[in-house]
Write a structure and sequence with these properties.
The protein is α/β, with parallel strands linked by helices and 307 residues long. The chain contains 13 helices and nine strands. It binds phosphoric acid mono(formamide)ester and norvaline (NVA).
Length: 307
Amino acid sequence: MSAIRHVLDVDDLSAVELAEVLSRAQVADPDRVLEGRGVALYFQKPSARTRHSTEMAVVQLAGHPVSVADHEAGIDTRESAEDVARVLGCYHAIIGARVFDHAILERMAAVSTVPVVNLLSDRAHPLQAIGDLLTVQQVCGTLPGRTVAYVGDANNVASSLALAAGSAGMAFRIAAPAGYGFDDDHLARLHAAGADVTSLDDPIAAVRGADAVYTDVWTSMGQEAEAAQRLRDFAGFTVTPELMDAAAPHAVFLHCLPARRGEEVAAAVIDGPRSRVWQQAANRMHAARALFWWLMDPIPGLVRATE
Ligand code: CP
Ligand code: NVA
């Protein structure tokens, strides 16, 4: 029997596996690998894109999604994370979970009899990063040799994107205010996983010649008490039209969303001609469908031509 594969971050997939998932993301009529089966989608935090894209991905694979809010099942309040995973695995082929503490996912994966997929934790957002690579591929044609410049907080989204970029042969640059970049341990982990990360403190230097400029909120879910301080600390790190002009002439703007116009991005950028954020949001569903498909049937060579 093959080992169960959990996807808690992008580097749980090899470069070859990630490429396979990206190929399958372009297949509009996937195999019905979830026919008669369920997928549990557990949320400790709010979600629009992730909940809807994963639910519809399961439907497209002929399965039945069951979304669960934390107040209904109560990880570590009503029941331990381990017991929740054991129980959901009795009914479902895959467990997706969005949690505050990444360690909860590791505890669930340690006992789960079915794959556990991270739907966002404080540390990582792998489904976002897979959808982001798909978007860059659609926009640029190819991934190797491309550069994505991330301006803002070195958070869950940035970390998974750095890993995904590295796996696809792309360079990742990040400009963050002092104290908000990747610390040395984090950078060492990213580099050890094959990421090509350059840390800068100047947004203009970071975006120079980049193919894509990316940002995320300055205050992530769970950090609300720090919001006022972060607003002050991130001054000067807004993605403005002037900053976009410093990137490559063909550069596009990306954001995982939700966005705060006037903070991490100017309205003129996110609502402007270089923005690809809606295409990016749509790609979340294609990425989720491809990953769930691969988890159910990882044998390479199944991908069919898209034309
Ligand atoms: N980008 C993203 O994960 O959005 P949601 O928080 O709405 O799921
Ligand atoms: N960094 C953000 C991403 C939301 C999709 C957060 O964790 O809240």
